[in-house]
Amino acid sequence: MSTATSTPSTGTPPAGPRPGAPTPRRRRRGLGQRILLWVLALLFAAWFILPFYWIVAMSFMTEAEAIAVPPHWIPQNPTLSNYLSFIDPQGNQSLVGGRAVEETPFALRNSMIVALATALLNLVISVPAGYAFARLEFRGSKALLIGYLMTRMVPSVAIIIPFYLMMKQAGLLNTYGALILSYLTFTLPVTVWVLKDFFRTVPRELEEAARVDRANWLQTVWHVLLPVSAPGLVAAAVFSFMTAWSEFMFALFMTSTRAAKTMPVVAANFATDLNTSFTLMSAAGVLAVLPPLILVLIFQRLIVQGMAAGSVKG
């Protein structure tokens, strides 16, 4: 009869890599992937940042330096004369850029008024509409929402002539009203959808608690719903503002005088004025980009929250 002998355990783990531990080959592969992602991210950032940087840099150059070969990436003799020429176009004859330079200050004012009015009216109209679609169940609501979006599928060139004739008959050409009414037609469907999705993420218990406190519907919306819905409201307003600020075709057809032209129309004139310099065009581009850029930087957190709300709860 044989007896089995047992080997005492020493308590030391067997040699070799631990289960699940990354091998050298796997670590090298992960490092390579991270490096590739960083390179792609830097290229993607350069694709967006370098053109804007070049415009900003050129706006502080003289005309001779702007067309120098090889190009100067950093202005050697920075100057503000390009921006000052918009304040006093006749003050420096060497920088006179024609009609576009003289109209730029008025165009900035017009664009700001039209964009702000469009954003405000979008909120006034889309808040009750979005609330109704989010809270009320009525026949044809889905078809109506789809109809709203279908209006965005119609090319602008297909409706620009009817809009022009309507505004002409109403006597609204060369007025802010023509532009604001036109912009509302293609910003409202999007803002209604954004606010509808965001209102659905707001708990109904908040409204029910307000009603328990004997608040009417307007008080509930003003004191409860709107403060909670600030990200969605900001996202809708910024979208409307930027769409109105950058729209070109309707503004080109509806306006022909200095009192109503917007910045995109005047910016296009820089390409037709023979005596306009590249540095003036760059300065005008910087002035046109700054307002929406500052707006997005200020409200970027609320914009992201508002636009992402619909993907969390439909």
Task: Quickly list its features.
314 residues, MetI-like fold, 13 helices, 0% strand, transmembrane helix, ABC transmembrane type-1 domain-containing protein, BP-dep_ABC_trans_perm, transmembrane, cell membrane
Note down, in words, how this protein is organized:
It is globular, with a radius of gyration of 29 Å. The chain folds into 2 domains: 38-80, no CATH class; 98-273 and 280-308, MetI-like (MetI-like fold, Orthogonal Bundle). The chain is an all-alpha fold and 314 residues long. Helix 4 packs antiparallel against helix 12, helix 4 (99-135) packs parallel to helix 13 (278-312) and helix 8 packs antiparallel against helix 9. It is built from 13 helices and no strands. Helices cover 70% and strands 0% of the residues. Belongs to the binding-protein-dependent transport system permease family. Residues 1-26 are annotated as: Disordered. The chain crosses the membrane at residues 35-56, 112-133, 145-167, 173-195, 221-245, 278-299. This is ABC transmembrane type-1 domain-containing protein.
